Amino acid sequence: MPSFLARSRKDSSNKCHTILSLCSVLLDCVKTILFQLVCMHQDPNEVCTLHSVDVTPEPLTFFHVIYLGRRVARWEHKTRKLSKAFGSPHLACYTLGGAILLLNVLRSHCFTQAMLSQPRMQSLDNPAVYHVGLALLGVGGVFVLSSFLALGFTGTFLGDYFGILKEARVTMFPFSVLDNPMYWGSTAIYLGWAIVHASPTGLLLTALVALIYMVAIVYEEPFTAEIYQQKASQAYKRS
């Protein structure tokens, strides 16, 4: 392996460990803040315990959707066993993409249930803030949908790990105005959804999700760049 790639992987690994540590700290902060909120709204005659606040499944669900999909895709890139099992890299990619979509539905459900199970924030519960939330939902939806249309199904759902590569880097909107628009569009959607529900839980979980997306970016981009560099090297040798 070239030395610059080795250094890139080491740097990415260090960044991942740092961000994962921040995620752990933020999760502790989430539980502490929610604990205080629950105690403020709980019957004085009832005992308030930290066990009454449980947001752990939600961030884990977000992490699993991102991590497991890429873990499987890397395994496929190394072994090509999914492509062999399904008889086609496209069919294998469609299957993994469908599984990720189903996990995304579960993720959104968990996010909503976590918000609804915790108190609302009065300072966010007004028409002006509500409309800001709607605007964020709209902007996030535009970024996510336009990213999908620009990349296609296989480009969105890790097709490059299956050997389904683009001829050139996508530069059309929204990639012309923002790197990783799918991730940040999704983050905007969750932030808007949290604001619409005036949910401090949603805001804190959105921050956690943004950090997890940052992990995915620093972990994913060097590997994807390596895939395309291998493609360029092979094309150069054939020429």
Automatic annotation (TrEMBL):
InterPro entries: PEMT/MFAP, Phopholipid_MeTrfase. Pathway: Phospholipid metabolism; phosphatidylcholine biosynthesis; Lipid metabolism. Catalyzes the three sequential steps of the methylation pathway for the biosynthesis of phosphatidylcholine, a critical and essential component for membrane structure. The chain crosses the membrane at residues 91-109, 129-158. Residues 1-43, 74-85, 155-197 are lumenal. It is an enzyme of class 2 (transferase). It holds the Pfam family PEMT. PROSITE patterns: SAM_PEMT_PEM2. This is Phosphatidylethanolamine N-methyltransferase. It comes from the Eukaryota. It is found in: Endoplasmic reticulum membrane; Mitochondrion membrane. Its EC number is 2.1.1.17, 2.1.1.71. HAMAP family: PLMT (MF_03216). It is a multi-pass membrane protein. Keywords: Endoplasmic reticulum, Lipid biosynthesis, Lipid metabolism, Membrane, Methyltransferase, Mitochondrion, Phospholipid biosynthesis, Phospholipid metabolism, S-adenosyl-L-methionine, Transferase, Transmembrane, Transmembrane helix. S-adenosyl-L-methionine binds at G138, V139, G140, E220, E221. Belongs to the class VI-like SAM-binding methyltransferase superfamily. PEMT/PEM2 methyltransferase family. It catalyses: a 1,2-diacyl-sn-glycero-3-phospho-N-methylethanolamine + S-adenosyl-L-methionine = a 1,2-diacyl-sn-glycero-3-phospho-N,N-dimethylethanolamine + S-adenosyl-L-homocysteine + H(+); a 1,2-diacyl-sn-glycero-3-phospho-N,N-dimethylethanolamine + S-adenosyl-L-methionine = a 1,2-diacyl-sn-glycero-3-phosphocholine + S-adenosyl-L-homocysteine + H(+); a 1,2-diacyl-sn-glycero-3-phosphoethanolamine + S-adenosyl-L-methionine = a 1,2-diacyl-sn-glycero-3-phospho-N-methylethanolamine + S-adenosyl-L-homocysteine + H(+). Residues 107-133, 219-239 are cytoplasmic. Its main location: endoplasmic reticulum.
